Amino acid sequence: MKKGQKLSKIAAIDPAQCCEGEIRDDRLILFPVLFLVGIGMVMVYSASSAVALTKFGSDYFFLRKQAMFAVAGIFALVICRHIPFKVYWHLTYPILILSMILLVVVHIPGIGYKAGGASRWIRIGTFTFQPSEFARLAMIFFLAYSLCKKQENIRIFSIGFVPHVLILTIFGILFHFQPDFGTILIFSVIAWIMMFIGGVRLLHLATPLILFAPLLGYIMINASYRLDRIMTFWDPWQYPQDGGYQVIHSLMAFGSGGLFGAGIGQGYQKLFYLPEAHTDFIFSVIGEEIGLLGVVFIVAMYVLIIWRGLMIAKNTENLYASLIAAGITTSFALQVCINMGVALGLLPTKGLTLPFLSYGGTSLLLNMAAIGVLMNIGGTKK
Questions:
Q1: Residue 226, pLDDT score
Q2: Is residue 13 part of a domain?
Q3: Cα distance between residue 203 and residue 155, in whole Å
Q4: Which domain holds residue 292?
Q5: Is residue 304 part of a domain?
Q6: What is the rounded average pLDDT for all residues in the chain?
Q7: In degrees to the nearest 10, what's the CA dihedral of 78, 83, 85, 87?
Q8: If DSSP codes are grouped into helix, strand and coil, which group holds residue 118?
Q9: How confident is the model at residue 5 (pLDDT cuts 50, 70, 90)?
Q10: Peptide bond into 94 cis (omega under 30)
């Protein structure tokens, strides 16, 4: 079957029939995920033990929490693996509305939790939840649903483009007040890629980028902390005690790791030199302790996950499922590329966890649930 014929066949599928098929296992994506979760447990302990002992009196503090969420994540993966993806079709709007409500709740005193000048978390007792992780999945489900449902008129500007950008704008406003400009960019890239795959005209996708580019530039430089990040990105060595501190120590960690690394637990930068070593900069600790060979193997695991996600999105003859798979895979790819790029000094600093490796319960739980959704789609026979 020619490529054009295949795309036409996919586009012609009735949304109501988007959810049929039998399930088979896809262990090729499961192995790298479980491997990364396992090595992540080891590296979270290594990167956080000194800080945990000093702050909480137990070097296992972060490890215990990560282990708890890893177990919960495995359950979430198994459950989502066996939930037919047609279920999300019927729950699109409840999930979307819930995600927006949670993004508002972060600003409620006593429930919302503020750290580093940003209101991005909900805290109930000892449990902390980051709604932006859930909102990313909610937006993917919505876009897949809406693009699939509007296929007959997808090339009409007011139908194929405007409603989706409207939802993206609402999310953007909610993230702006956190503030979290980086997440706005990530959501925008995911939405644009999904709309492109869904058949929205390229002219419609390109024109707003040109029109809103000056506005985005203004937003980026209007806040002093964003401008500082851009300046330190160009030359972090000019700001060794300020904005460039994290990047400099991250690069020092990679430089001292060499080919084979200093050995797990033997890293130096994590000892109160490299901030957020067990979260945003765990890739740096990996580079220092298991070296270039270990880093290459970690990257290979991510490449395998992303490749399988792309193959799942490409091979399913089901537009709704294909769009969900493409959105989830794009989300993983962006998180991996941005986190690694920041750690290596290739991108401005952005607080973003490395999937399956970094400490962070919400990220681990929802990323594993997303893998379960991917496996369900990949296990559906054509």
A1: 62
A2: no
A3: 10
A4: 19-378
A5: yes
A6: 84
A7: -140
A8: strand
A9: very low
A10: no
Residue 367 lies in a domain: yes
In whole angstroms, what is the distance from residue 110 CA to residue 125 CA? Answer: 10
CB-CB contact of 290 with 11 (8 Å): no
Residue 126: closest CA among 71, 65, 182, 199: 65
| Confidence at 223, pLDDT banded by 50, 70, 90 | low
Residue 115 has pLDDT above 80, yes or no: no
Count of domains forming the chain = 1
d(CA 379, CA 22): 7
Report in angstroms the alpha-carbon separations of 118 from 115, 121, 225, 364. Answer: 5, 9, 12, 21
What amino acid occupies position 221? Answer: I
Using a pLDDT cut of 90, give the percent of the chain over it: 46
Hey, what are 90's tokens? 């019927």
Strand order in 127-129's β-sheet?
A: 112-115, 118-124, 127-129
Residue 189 falls within a domain, yes or no? yes
Kindly report whether the global pTM for this prediction surpasses the value 0.70.
Answer: yes
The answer to whether 70 and 2 have CB atoms below 8 angstroms apart is no
CA 330/CA 324 separation, integer angstroms: 10
Distances (CA, A) of 292 to 259, 271, 285, 302: 5, 21, 12, 15
Tens of pLDDT, residue by residue over 265-316, are: 888 788 877 777 888 889 999 999 999 999 999 999 999 999 999 999 998 8
